[in-house]
Amino acid sequence: MAPNTMTDPTRRTRAGRVRPPAAASLPTRRPMRRSDAGWALLLVGPATVGLSLFYLWPALETFYESFTTSGPFGGHTWSGLHNYATLLHDTELRGALLNTVWYTLFGLLGVPVSLVLATLLAKPGRRFVAGYRVLMFLPAVTMPAAIAIVWKWLYHHDYGLINLGLGKLGVQGPYWVSDPHTALIAVAIVGMWAGIGYGVIIMMAGLEGIPPHYYEAAKMDGAGPLRRFFSITIPLMSPTIFFMTVLSVIASLQTFDLIYVLIGSSNPSLPQTRTVLYLFYEHAFTQNDRGYGSAIAFSLVVLVIAVTAVQFKLQKRWVHYE
Amino acid sequence: MNLARNARSLAAAAAVTALTTAALAGCAGGGTGTGTTTASSSAPAAAAPQVTISYGLWDPNQEAAMKQIAAAFESANPNIHVDVQVTPGQQFFTKLQTSMAAGNAPDVFWMSPVIFQMYASNGALKSLDDLGLDTSSYPSQLVKGCQAGGKLYGVPKDFDTIGVWYNKSLFDAAGVAYPAADWTWSDFQTAAAKLTDKSKGVYGTAAELNGQDTYYDTIFQAGGEVLTADNKSGFGEPQTIAGLKFWTDLIANGSSPSLQQMNDTTPLDMFQTGKVAMLWSGSWNVKALAASPVADHIDVAPLPRGEKAATVINGLCNVEAASTKHPAEVKAFLQFLGSKQANEIEGKTGTVIPAFNGTQSDWVAAYPNYHVQAYIDQVPVGVPMPVSKNSYAWMQTEGTTLAGAWTGQMPVAAAAAAVEKSTNDALAKEQG
């Protein structure tokens, strides 16, 4: 799902920026024949129908239900803005929003980490790169629930590997996921870790697009590896970095499975770790208040759109398109 | 003209697709046709058409017994097949509700009192008044638990109470006498302190944050209430707070692991590995405990008494989905589920305490090595599980709030006051 939604915006921006002069040559291209349009329709048809049925329709339904008070089995009555008015005074939601923001900030740390890892891997002459790539990408193809269960064991106070290691250093490790002071960081680390593999692959693809002669020229002028990284890699990678940033923020804002499995409903640190999406789940599916749940879900959608829009505005200041 | 050509090519494409689909359908149809013929020719005796009804439940430990009951029913009703569907734990209700809204819920399923009223009052269940059930065959408390608005919506399935399991080896090692039938809170607290051995990582008991298994029982023993008679929260009552303090004190003085520890390793696991000497546990866990590594040196005693003796008593019902397409077959199955025969299977396999009067002794007899009679003996002091129309709405907040008291971050009285408020808010919402 992620690659689909995300490659498009960057491409569009890149095309728009890179070759405005080229646009002039467009009319000389062979005009699209009408029968091509028919085939195009036929080809996009199944995807369009699928997306409308399984994404668009439920989204509209959710939007409608957010203005209703719903019964547990599907009946609902119109209640206008009542759910949204309740949202404003919901202290649990405020806590969940704050937690979500923290996850997002922590998640962003994964972007520089994956850039550095990708740069190290892309070094010419490095062996077993394909092997590293596979290892790095494994978390991305593993189910989040499975990841969470494995980490739950790593974080175990008495039998976990992390505390075992700390114990060897003479440090008594905390109750990682049930101590309110460490739980949020513990969850954020897993989220970041799970996202790095994907980031490294994207970054490596981006690095391959940088012409090697830039580095050769800089080397000849006496630039060291750090200087080359900051003066060539980062500016030329900025479109990819931007793309990863947008992706990471959207993924972090929707954190749910990690909380559900790693924290769970009877955990004393739940209020300090609960995300907006988890709160939505509690209201809609445990407390049977789907109207209010829908209002929470829709507020999250608005938040995701707003944050992404701000990122697109800000990118003009720091993203370079060759 | 363009449009025409466009339409023609589309039509051609559509025709190709339609042909392919038709071809596939033809194959499939042919396949099934042959299958049916073979089946009916090999079993010409079955006159009535085969009907499959689904039976939804949430406890994997009971799956074997439920399948045995289904098989017994099928052998008496060869034209009905019962499909037993297990969805573990809390997911069961989430899934049930979604499938209910979508109109494809199981035909028959287990119902917990915790959500019974919500289902009954929303027309999700079929009234069973015409089932011809002899309600005098079951304890009246259980029948009441399957009724709403004066109508019967469920067939009593089983019931459970809470008992204290103890590890005899740990008692012997600490030189503590085994629990007596009439023991008290202070006996329990003293034993828990003596049994605790920090150097070996052994705790006297585990103050699990669980209403039914632990703190609801002590609230009732202290003379408090979870919900009052007029459907308000009872967490403002000093007796209720005393029932909560029973557990927070055990954590504070080190007789119980902390909530954080119990979150990493469940109390049941700790008991089964000999790290906890006394565990409050429901009768539905007996089967699992009897198969655990500590099985040969454990036993069970009734709960200790506080101001009075009490335990939560909770019963399950088998109910019929209002949406069922096979009411006649479901009726036959429900009648069988309520029968002595089905209850005997529940009892003899040691699965749960059956509801049918007189079959409880089968369950007791299934565990000759343990004093499980303690569960049955407590029935007279049993207090029904506190429930309302949408119980989960307040129970969930109650658990999250009490976690603050369990970790010691929040005074018990303050946490109780917060629960009182959130519960009353949720209960008020049920009315509106």
Task: List key phrases describing it.
heterodimer, A: 322 residues, mainly alpha, MetI-like fold, two-stranded antiparallel ribbon, globular, B: 432 residues, alpha/beta, 7-stranded mixed beta sheet, 4-stranded mixed beta sheet, 49% helix, disordered N terminus
Describe the structure.
The complex is a heterodimer of chains A (322) and B (432). Chain A is mainly alpha-helical and 322 residues long. Chain A is built from 15 helices and two strands. Chain A has a two-stranded antiparallel sheet with strand order 1-2. In chain A, a hairpin with a 5-residue loop joins strand 1 and strand 2. Chain B has 432 residues and is an alpha/beta fold. Helices cover 49% and strands 15% of the residues of chain B. In chain B, helix 8 crosses helix 9 and helix 17 runs antiparallel to helix 18. Chain A binds chain B through residues 34-35, 37-39, 41-42, 71-75, 156-158, 175, 177-180, 264-268, 270-271, 282, 285-289, and chain B through 2-3, 5-6, 9-10, 13, 90, 94, 97, 100-101, 118, 122-124, 209-210, 258-261, 263-265, 390, 392-393, 396, 399-400, 403-404, 406-407, 409, 426, 429.
